[in-house]
Amino acid sequence: MKSETIKTVISWIENPYIEKFFYLTLTITVIVIITKIVKNVINQKISDHNLKYRTRKVLNFFSFLLILFTTSLIFNDKLGKLTVAFGIVGAGVAFALQELITSTAGWFAIIFNNYFKVGDRVQIAGIKGDVIDIGLFKTTLMEIGDWVNGDLYNGKTVRVSNSFIFKEPVFNYSSEFPFLWDEIQIPIHINSDIEFSKSKINEIAEEIVGHYEPKAQKNWKSMVDKFMIEDAKIEHFCAITADITCITVTLRYVTEYKLRRKVKDALFLRIIEESKKSNGKMIWAYSTLTVSH
Q1: 179-188 and 170-172: which strand pairing?
Q2: Can you tell me the distance from the alpha carbon of 111 to that of 105, in angstroms, rounded to the nearest whole number?
Q3: Residue 235's CATH number
Q4: Alpha-carbon gap, residue 217 to 233, rounded angstroms
Q5: Is residue 237 a part of any domain in this protein?
Q6: 286 in a structural domain
Q7: Any domain includes 231
């Protein structure tokens, strides 16, 4: 009985497949350990969050490729005999996995062509949100908007196949120019002091959004140097339109792309406050209804 057990153990040890699996397991363990050590070094040495994230992603990808390459080397004698079979089924597999293959190609395009990075606010495939992860096959967004007004999170995470990069336009709110032009409209009563109102609204804009303009101007200059684009006006300004009901002052300004709603709220609060203190010089227009008998 003991001799049979010993023979069985020896046969297992001498089995070439067991030896190959042992070497494969050892190699995968070494690759995983080295990958973790390199990741720890990356976390300690690289301070830029975006560069750190992209480096880890590329490291994971090449570790995966190294494991596949090692497996093919260890089992090359068996894989060689399957060449014909792989050739026959290759076309079918490629067709079945075309979405995964295209998504992987999309990942390469996103990472190395800098379409967007983690933290950017984008609109892709009709979905607007902040990029929170760029996987090998899918990009994950924290969605904004939908049933929530303004540029605020609604709590949904959305995963979009990376193949969209070859099919859909990509709107990036933060990559080249991390500012947005926005505007608000203030209806002013026809009896208001228009010049006073316009001047006061400009003062409020200078107070709340004026500090964004030097940085926005610097970023826009880089855009003009890089692309065929006109040198647009960055400074805030007011424009006036009128109809039979009121005079409308439109304030146009730049703001950081994530602070659009907050800035708009601050502007309206200050304009309302100054309107109340204006002693009738800046009167908000309102609708009236006249009933005749």
Answers
A1: unpaired
A2: 10
A3: 3.30.70.100
A4: 9
A5: yes
A6: no
A7: yes
Handedness of CA 110, 114, 118, 123 (dihedral sign): negative
Residue with tokens 């902040």: 130
Contacts of 123 (CB under 8 A, 6+ apart): 129, 170, 171, 173
Residues 63, 147, single domain; the answer is no
Per-residue confidence of the chain (293 residues) as pLDDT tens digits? 555 555 554 555 555 666 677 777 888 888 888 888 888 887 777 777 666 776 777 777 778 778 777 777 766 655 555 455 455 545 554 555 567 778 888 888 888 887 888 888 899 878 889 998 888 888 899 998 878 777 788 888 999 888 888 888 888 888 778 898 999 999 998 888 999 999 999 999 999 999 999 999 988 888 888 777 777 888 999 999 988 888 999 999 999 988 888 999 999 999 999 999 988 899 888 765 445 55
The neighbouring-strand residues paired with 158 are: 141
**Cα torsion for 277, 283, 285, 290, to the nearest 10°?**
110
Q: Is residue 77 part of a domain?
A: yes
62 and 23, same domain (yes or no): yes
Phi/psi-derived region of residue 174, left when phi > 0, alpha when psi is between -120 and 50, beta in every other case: alpha
- For the entire predicted model, the pTM comes to 0.62
Give me the domain span that covers residue 13.
2-81
Q: What is the DSSP letter of 212?
A: G
Give the count of domains, the chain. Answer: 3
